[in-house]
Specification:
Elements: E1 12-14, H1 15-21, H2 26-33, E2 40-41, E3 47-50, H3 51-61
Antiparallel strand pairs: 1-3, 2-3
Protein name: Transcriptional regulator
Length: 79
């Protein structure tokens, strides 16, 4: 090993962390954001949310105009 410390950012957040990431309550996240982002099954009962989808949602709110992909297939986003 090289002895380097690597800090990695998560790609998927659970609902509490996703709400905190967007500086809102879980209740507000459920009503305002959840209908507009993909849910990833982390287990039979837990769902996660892609940080990239959360970033796109907040960009839309700020007038960035970046639309969320309509396809759930990540290969469709590559061009």
């Amino acid at each position: 090993m090289s002895g380097k410390i690597v800090q990695m950012s998560p790609r998927v957040l659970d609902i509490g962390d996703a709400a905190s990431y967007l500086a809102m309550s879980v209740g507000t996240f459920r009503t305002q954001v959840l209908p507009h982002v993909r849910q990833i099954a982390l287990s039979a009962r837990r769902r996660g949310y892609l940080v990239s989808d959360l970033d796109r949602w907040i960009d839309q709110q700020a007038g960035g105009g970046t639309e969320l992909a309509t396809s759930l297939n990540p290969w469709d986003m590559m061009s």
